[in-house]
Amino acid sequence: MTVHAPTLAPSAHVDTFCRDNLPPPETWPVLDLGDLGYPERLNCAVALLDATIDRLGADRPCLRTPGGGTWSYGELRDRADRIAAVLVDELGLVPGNRVLLRGFNEPWLVACWFAVLRAGGVVVTTMPALRAGELATIGEMCRPALALCDARLTEDLERAAVPGMVVAPFGGDGPGDLTARAAARRDAPPAPADTAADDVALLAFTSGTTGKPKATMHFHRDVLAIADTFGAHVLRPEPEDVFTGTPPLAFTYGLGGLVVFPLRVGASVLLLERATPDQLADAIADHGVTVLFTAPTAYKAVVAGGKADRLAGLRRAVSAGENLPAATWHAVHDATGLRVIDGIGATEMLHIFVSAADDDIRPGCTGRAVPGYTAAVLDDDGEPVPDGTEGHLAVRGPTGCRYLFGDRQESYVRHGWNHTGDTYVRDTDGYFTYRARTDDMIVSAGYNIAGPEVEQALLQHPAVVECAVVGAPDPDRGTIVKAFVVLDPEHTGEVPPEELQAHCKRVIAPYKCPRAVEFRTELPRTATGKLQRFRLR
To answer: What's the pLDDT at 403?
Structure first.
């Protein structure tokens, strides 16, 4: 089914904030649901948990931890239902309320994710590395009623002081802790909310190229669609697989790879709160991991660190978040025999839409359009360019961009296509090869970083007069954040780079901060005063 002008089913949301703030229908991309055939009423949390339990049983292992603990599918559902009861009966959640989640990759965060959706809420999962100012911006945009926060991470969230948001810590030892309140529940669990397939389930934030984040809105059916396209046709997971990976669950790459894909088929997942490449390799070997999701830099570091043998048990290895160079692919393959699955996705699209696996892989190429999606290379007027010619990567399928408030919707969706902001070339066989970003986004070690946001942080230092931030080549990370800084003449020679880096880490998440700082007496500008970042690149 191809949808041009969306007609939405009756919503289960009492709080209609999300429906009210969808972008205008005429600005949506063309949506092609193909033969996915989802019913009008659908709760993705029920489809991922209850349907899997009905098919395979409640005792199957589901969530694993490095310490050896394991939650079964039944235990995850029970704990999610208990948390949902607390949210509704004790904290006043009504369907449609936004609930901010803040935590590391561990079982209670997953239980909270399911609880919010089962109660009809809208999940807003945030990075544990975010600082108070960044959390305040997210809160201002999505207006959450509640925040469920790992007890170790409450300080920045409390400093954010989001108006009207009640913070409920979990995983601590206080009597008011959410986990203790959930364990104390003795009544029957509430019935899951009867949400529409096109009710908003997730608000996922992406770094905006202007420095201000954008919230992307994803429906309940979208969560299943990524499992039934990339998951089913490219990844092809099996019930006995054990998944693990490094992306936070706040990244849609991590959400798909560490929650949606394994639970859709009844597999289990090893959740790692933090892992260096060496620790990741050891965890893979020690816990019998068969499916890995991480970034190219991690694969490269594992091989360089002499840990390639620890990957011997992997059946599937997925790389996304940044371009996978052919040299890195071959280095991993030569050391391990693994054929790494490359892919490009976007927060706006929820997950990967161009990829290839097994004998279809061509190292150095991202791949072909994932079944269910259509991809093209277009010119500035939205017309296809000849194969072999560079142009804008555009894609459409069962998922698509919907920015909260329609924020800059027209810049991402043009002529019915989702424009990813990447320059690509397609060959005559339909393979897509990455060339460059077409905007000011910096992609480093799998993270999307907006240069203007880093510039705003640097300019808060009293000695900085002006600055420009760009992506610079790096042999280990592919690209790093580099800052060109002009100091006040009174401070020239007095401010070391380390001071500016430490200042940034107090203002924004550390992964966004510049790894290199170069001082200049002036920055290149046009005759009208516009900064010329391309010259610095």
So the answer is: 97
452 touches 512 (CB < 8 A): no
Say if residue 429 is exposed, middle or buried (CB neighbours under 10 Å; 0-12, 13-18, 19+).
exposed
CA trace torsion 292, 340, 230, 205 (10° rounding): 60
- Domains of the chain as residue ranges with CATH: 2-426 (3.40.50.12780), 441-536 (3.30.300.30)
Q: Which three-class secondary structure string do you get for 176-224? A: CCHHHHHHCCCCCCCCCCCCECCCEEEEEEECCCCCCCEEEEEEHHHHH
Residue 30 has pLDDT above 90, yes or no: yes
Based on the number of CB atoms within 10 Å of its own CB, is 58 exposed (0-12), middle (13-18) or buried (19 or more)?
A: middle
Q: What is the pLDDT of residue 526?
A: 59
What distance in Å separates the CA atoms of residue 210 and residue 215, rounded to the nearest whole number? 14
Question: Tell me, what amino acid is at 91?
Answer: L
| Phi and psi based region of residue 211 (left: phi greater than 0; alpha: psi -120 to 50; beta: remaining) | left
pTM over 0.85: yes
| CA distances, 399 to each of 102, 346, 352 (Å) | 25, 11, 10
pLDDT > 80? residue 290: yes
State the Cα–Cα distance between residues 261 and 265, nearest whole angstrom: 7
The single residue listed with the structure tokens 């694969």 is 299
For residue 38, give the nearest of 402, 399, 400, 418 by alpha carbon.
Answer: 399
Decide if 533 contacts 440 (C-beta within 8 A): yes
Q: What is the pLDDT of residues 226-235, one digit of tens each?
A: 999 999 999 9
Phi, psi values for residue 93, rounded to 5°: -65, 135
Strand partners, 148: 101, 168
DSSP per position, 386-410: PTT--EEEEEEBS----BGGGTTHH
CA dist 528 → 525, 531, 532 (Å): 8, 9, 11
